[in-house]
Description:
Helix content: 10-25%
Number of strands: 3
Number of helices: 2
Order of helices and strands: HHEEE
Radius of gyration: 14 Å
Strand order of the largest sheet: 2-1-3
Amino acid sequence: DLTLASSDEAGGEKKTAVTASVLRRELTSRYPGLGPLLNDRDGSVTLALNEEYVDPDDDPILKTGDTVAIIPPISGG
Length: 77
């Protein structure tokens, strides 16, 4: 379970929306070895949000309860 931020604005504290790109940056920060794969625009890895592939040009906002999958490169044979 990876908690990045809360959508709650308790106490007047403004929270930033967590998007797919924010998730990629946070994962890269926590796991530097993943950085080259997560940030490669050539499709080294693909993100799926709630069992739907995320287009590399999209940056959807992640909500509480969403499921994110990191899908490694797949080759045919």
